[in-house]
Amino acid sequence: MASDSDCEVIASDSFSVGPRRRFPSRPASSWTMSAPRKVAAEASEAGPSTSRPPPGKSTCSSTEIETIARAIRARYLEGLQVMLQKQCEVLVETFKVSPIICGMEPSMWLRYVASTGVCKDDWVALVITNWKDHRAEQAKGTKKNSSEEGAVVHFIHRTLRELIPIYSTLAVSFLACHLAREPVLPTDIVDWALEAKLPYLSFFLEMDGYIGSPSVARQMKNRTMFRPALLLGSRQLEAVAGKIAKKIGLELPPVNFYAAARRCLEELQLPMGILPRACRVYEWLLPDKIWISENDLSGFPTLVVVMSVLIITLRILYDVNGYGTWEKSLGCIADKQNSMEDCFGMESSTSSEFDASELLRVLEAVHKDIEVKHDYSKDLNSYLTYYEDVISAGMNPKLHLTKAIERCRNIFVKNEHRNMNKKRSIDVATTSFESRAHLKSGTWKKKLSSNNCDVDPLLGIERALDRMRFEMEENWFFYIAPFTKRKTKGYITYKRVRMCKMHIYAVHADYYILLRAFSKLAKVDMRLLHASTLELERKLAWFEERIRTSLNVPKDLSQGGPVEYCEMEVELC
User: Fold this and answer.
1) What phi and psi values does residue 131 have, to the nearest 5 degrees?
2) DSSP state string for 236-282
3) CB neighbours (10 Å) of residue 470?
4) pLDDT tens, 279-302?
5) What pTM value is reported for the model?
6) DSSP code at position 323
7) Spatial distance between the Cα atoms of 8 and 10, rounded to a whole number of angstroms
8) What's the mean per-residue pLDDT of the chain?
């Protein structure tokens, strides 16, 4: 399978890290591999065929193409191996992932490379045949170039990238974390790679220090060979990981639901008492989409399924079924006519028990605090630094572009100093104002109370409802007023309705607040999360009905329970 001598670099001892040893086992200075010396030896043994052809020669012989293909293959595989090894090091040392991934990544990578057939004996001959066919198609009706050596190099490199893309290193790293049962999500891998915390986008700049510069003039530079063409999204990365696992015959376990759900609850600042109940719902459902799938078009991402189970658990525990809990929380403005301080005092004096109103309040507050921006988008200076170090790394920008970047940076620094001076002056003015107000505290409180009495509390409620309706319509949801009277109590399942030749999701505000917080945390569309939740609800309702039928429980005796399913129908004109 891997009989060529130049493919032996894959199994070099620099990648043989045991699963029980701390990573890295050797200093970074000793990680340089031996492929450059091997490529140089092959180039010297090939004699005149490895030198650049004379100016009058327009074609390359099969021997020359074979030599070029072997050299490029050795360098490409070695470079990807180094990139994968550095990703493993960063995951262990920076993001505190278990060192056991250091023993998993090499075996998966070797099996993946072997499954592509790149190291087989007939791969070079196949490349030569494909190149001749490609050249014959290009030659029809076109004029031949003066030299085809550069075209041969790019054709071989493009063939290697199609078989083993550069982003496959990220997929193998995610697979190793998944097998190690670490709570590392595809969104984490994508974000770390995008922010250059994980070696991927700009690692080609450091490649010369590990595999050296090309020893033959005909070979491609490292910045061209290892510069990524794209960065996959989290859903596509998960699909690529599933394809690699299927290709190498790897039986994947389901997602570590406990670790993923615990992390979500911690980030949403929800009590950990929810976790055991969520695990029971998960064990009861065992959704098939909790396994990594190779298809990114059908089904739902695994993180979305985890979020859906949590949403169902919260709805069952806190009875979030359209009773207007969020609308009732707006009534504190109307109930307290004196001041806003009385409203906040009422909230703080309530019982410490975590109920539905407290759940919605926490999710609303956390939703505003969830930061979806990356580190490089904090300010202009950070973005310019990110552009120079990552986006345009290895490139020689034009002089006017460099001057424009420096001009923008100088303007930002000046404005930052100016804003700091303004802030200091405002702080001084605020301090003096507070001191004067303290001297006339009685007059100040009297004016404040008189101003609060002039504000209509019902106007604030209407504005809050209008904002909620407008936000829901922007996200293709339709606001449903809370129930006033219901014949039976139970779990409400919503339906998709058709309005103006479009499908609209009609839901209550309480349920929408759950969707909004969880979808922002998972960085997915709310409609996708809602569709996943509806599918799991239908499956859970089917289980309940089958159990009731099997036990011959009369329907009137099974009603009124905590998980009675009522389908919500809405008529829209």
Assistant:
1) -65, -40
2) HHHHHHHHHHHHTT--PPPP-HHHHHHHHHHHTT--TTHHHHHHHHH
3) 10
4) 999 998 888 888 998 876 677 899
5) 0.76
6) S
7) 5
8) 76
